[in-house]
Specification:
The chain has 380 residues and is an alpha/beta fold. It has two domains: 2-177 and 346-377, Medium-chain alcohol dehydrogenases, catalytic domain (Quinone Oxidoreductase, Chain A, domain 1, Alpha-Beta Complex), CATH 3.90.180.10; 180-322, NAD(P)-binding Rossmann-like Domain (Rossmann fold). It is 24% helix and 24% strand. The chain is globular, with a radius of gyration of 20 Å.
Length: 380
């Protein structure tokens, strides 16, 4: 790693994706200094999320390459841009893919976390000036989810950086920057799961298991997990899953199986797969009158949802959420405190830890369904 005096352009190593599905290549990249309201951080640890796979494969999404993926990370601020007052050089931070400006209509409302300034970045450019901070020989390297943490250093908006106390370990807590927070928030903030309720969760990856943990802590009496990978079932018990359904074991539609065993449907259902067909199944699996289906998964293929109006007319609700509805800078510190007090599980979602040089192995493990979250150690 070599760099000139901050806040000048520096050079560092990054895992660059040159095309859809192509192995990542460790390259030396140039990283511009932080612009107004931005920070440049030294990445310590980053974890691989299913979205990193989805957009890397580019199935159903516009391919944007060359690109640096990664958005769940911890790091140390190396330099700050003009106007940043709440963060300083040396601060430890957790990154998030959707920020909080605290000034727009959504940030001021208690009904939304969809910041108008820092919503999920989709074009591979910094939202402040529609340019990239990464380049190789003067050619732009595109960002991902406003973070791009598969790099020794990265630049992000200060509204996407959550300050951590120096005593918080900068390792496994990186998974709180997306997947775990999304699942807990879906159960607590979006659905507001009640004591004694019945819940069904489609997809037992990190997000689905975080929903299970959230439902368990809220006192749900039945938490049904649905997944075609039987290896997920034992892991599910750790987080509160009480019953399991493998759709491949039944001839009838999954929603009918669920209605049969719950006498009419569940109180809540959560779609954590990213499949429009499963979204419809989730909606049809909850009960009439008050049943709520919550969409959390990011689709990797077909984007258009088709559903019969009947379930909605009968009183069911279909809701979607990003980051579990949390306002990141205002509310995620609460989850960090709960983690430090051992009131919520986070470390248990990390099934593998690898050095930065083995990042392609992490991709392989997740694609094969052999890990929940793999933490990649980038810096010291």
């Amino acid at each position: 790693m070599s760099k000139t005096h901050s806040p000048q352009t520096i050079t560092c190593k990054a895992a660059v994706a040159w095309g859809p599905g192509e192995p990542l290549s460790i390259e030396e990249v140039e990283l511009a200094p932080p612009q107004p309201m931005e920070v440049r951080i030294k990445v310590i640890s980053t974890s691989l999320c299913r979205s990193d796979i989805t957009f890397w494969e580019s199935r159903g999404h516009i391919p944007i390459f060359p690109r640096i993926f990664g958005h769940e990370a911890t790091g140390i601020i190396e330099s700050v841009g003009e106007g940043v007052t709440d963060l300083h050089e040396g601060d430890h931070i957790l990154t998030v893919f959707t920020g909080e400006c605290k000034k727009c209509r959504h940030c001021k409302s208690d009904k939304s976390n969809m910041c108008e300034t820092l919503r999920m970045e989709r074009k591979g450019l910094m939202q402040s000036d529609q340019k990239t901070r990464f380049s190789i020989n003067g050619k732009p390297i595109y960002h991902f989810c406003a973070v791009s943490s598969f790099s020794e250093y990265t630049v992000l908006h200060s509204g996407c950086a959550i300050k951590l106390s120096p005593n918080v370990p900068l390792g496994k807590i990186s998974v709180l920057g997306c997947g775990v927070a999304a699942g807990l928030g879906a159960a607590w903030k979006v659905a507001d799961v009640g004591k004694g309720s019945t819940v069904v969760i489609f997809g037992l990856g990190t997000v689905g298991l975080a929903v299970a943990q959230g439902a368990k802590l809220r006192g749900a009496s039945r938490i049904i997990g649905v997944d075609i990978n039987p290896d997920k079932f034992e892991m599910g018990k750790v987080f509160g899953i009480t019953e399991f359904i493998n759709p491949n074991d039944y001839k009838q539609p999954t929603q009918e199986v669920i209605k049969d065993i719950t006498a009419g449907g569940t109180d809540y259902s959560f779609e954590c797969v990213g499949d429009v067909g499963v979204i419809r199944t989730a909606l049809e699996s909850c009960c009439d009158g008050w049943g709520m289906a919550v969409i959390i998964g990011v689709p990797s293929g077909q984007m258009e949802l088709s559903a019969h109006y009947g379930p909605l007319l009968s009183g069911r609700t279909l809701k979607g959420t990003l980051l579990g509805g949390w306002k990141p800078k205002s509310e995620l510190p609460m989850l960090i405190d709960m983690y430090m007090k051992k009131e919520i599980q986070i470390d248990e979602y990390v099934t593998h830890e690898l050095p930065f040089s083995d990042i392609n192995k992490a991709y392989q493990l997740m694609r094969e369904g052999k890990c929940l979250r793999c933490v990649i150690h980038v810096g010291n």
